[in-house]
Amino acid sequence: MKTLYVIILITKMIYREIGKTAKRASVIGLGCEHLDGKPYEQVKNVIDSAISSGINIFDVFMPGKEVRENIAKAIGSRRKEILIQGHICSANIGQQYDISRDLPTVKRFFEEHLRICGGHIDFGMLFFIDSDEDYKNVFETGIADYALKLKEKGDISHIGFSSHNPVSAIKTVNTNLVELMMFSINPAFDIIPTEESIFTHLEKGFNANSFTAVEPKRAELYRLCEQKNIGITVMKTLGAGKLISSEHTPFCKPLTVAQCTHYALSRPAVVSVLLGCKSPEEIEEAVKYLTLSDEEKDYTDILKSIRGGLHGSCVYCNHCQPCPSQIDIASVNKYLDIAKLDTANIPPSVRSHYQSLAYNGFECTQCGNCENRCPFDVLVIENMKEAHKLLG
Ligand code: SF4
Ligand code: SF4
Fold first, then answer.
1. How many Å separate Cα 63 from the centre of its chain?
2. CATH code of the domain occupying 15-296
3. Among candidates 230, 225, 278, which has minimal Cα distance to 33?
4. Residue 284: is it exposed, middle or buried by C-beta count within 10 angstroms (0-12/13-18/19+)?
5. Which residue, by CA, sits nearest to atom 4 of ligand 1?
6. Mode of pairing for the β-strands spanning 156-163 and 15-17
7. Of 15, 28, 260, 323, which shows the fewest CB atoms inside 10 Å?
8. What's the pLDDT at 299?
9. Distance from residue 333's CA to the centre of ligand 1 (Å)
10. From CA 162, how far away is CA 8, in angstroms rounded?
11. Any idea where the domains of the chain sit in the sequence?
12. Ligand 1 binding pocket mutation candidate from 298, 320, 373 (most atoms within 8 A of CB)
């Protein structure tokens, strides 16, 4: 008689603190856009599967009443267990999803979402701040004041925003009004020059000829968020599916979902990667990340194929391990990168993160093992010395 073996995949969700909000988000979150236009049963199956996998953060940017109601109904009595990102300025204009900066319209759509969610939304996200005009239309027309009033009334717990542009995002973070940023992060977007629109690359295909090393404005944005203790949730992790497609990838080969997820989760300040799933199977695939080995998640070889390379920039990949002095080299490099943003005003939190590492730059014996292993020629020994000088 044959024995039937049943393999059960056990995943244990990991949670990260969302900046200074005192809330914790699952590292895998759910972007709900693919539930739009789907029957309630399908929405319920996806939401049930997400919650039972430990996912506790959902992005609901869509202004459509039906999809918002379906999601709220599917969450049901579990509402308090879930963090919802609802978007201020997302509106349905002329039967099309759009951005509105008209305050009465903005209020109508957000207040409908509030009602559907039982009168409270965790993160009121200022929607789509991608240009100076967007910034002006949000911060100089009463929309940001409206968000602040929502927070004062307790209708939302925190103000956040979404953006695809590092320059506008830096400006928004520096208002000190926001506590969460949803930003598009993946290895391809991170090497597109700031002046080029990511949407052009998505529509027309990635133009690998314009790729640079890690784009400094993006690196600055992630470090600024870490410095100001602002959490980042990630959208477009897979570059609208292009990065995992052999036909459209701009790299030597397609990345896997897990590699894209791991890349985003390795950036400073990132708390959760919001993956757009439309079936329980896709949720299962997304959370499989939690069960994989470091080798299976490793994205280094693919980054090395970038034209021009990432010479000298730490991408926090951990390839330099093991260090005989047990230093967490990627973390020391990450804190050093943040400290170097403004050496005269290093945030106490960054200093304290550095000082609470079990082993830090001071323990470096300059053996050089890490530099031999680093695929990106990072001057680790110099970095260890500098980190200790600035943060020790
Ligand atoms: S020093 Fe090199 S190997 Fe180590 S984490 Fe940074 S990029 Fe990766
Ligand atoms: S050079 Fe320093 S950081 Fe690098 S492996 Fe040796 S002890 Fe560790």
1. 22
2. 3.20.20.100
3. 278
4. middle
5. 320
6. unpaired
7. 15
8. 85
9. 8
10. 37
11. 15-296, 329-391
12. 320
Q: Report the atom number in ligand 2 closest to the C-alpha of 366.
A: 1
Residue 37: predicted pLDDT: 93
DSSP 301: H
pLDDT under 70: residue ranges of the chain: 1-11, 191-214, 305-310
Half-sphere exposure of 95 (CA within 13 A, CB side): 0
- Give, using CA atoms, the residue closest to atom 6 of ligand 2: 367
What pLDDT does residue 212 have? Answer: 57
pTM of the model: 0.79
Q: Tens digit of pLDDT for each residue in 257-282?
A: 999 999 999 988 999 999 999 999 99
For residue 49, the model assigns a pLDDT of 97
pLDDT of residue 209: 57
Is 332 touching ligand 1 by the criterion CB < 6 Å?
no
Task: Give the pLDDT of residue 2.
Answer: 42
Question: Is the CB of residue 329 below 6 angstroms from any atom belonging to ligand 1?
Answer: yes
What is the token pair recorded at 52? 């039972």
Ligand 1 centre to CA of 320 (Å) is: 5
The residue whose C-alpha atom lies closest to atom 2 belonging to ligand 1 is: 374
The pLDDT of residue 376 is 82
Residues 6+ apart with CB under 8 A from 55: 13, 26, 28, 29, 30, 283, 287
Ligand nearest to the CA of 388: 2
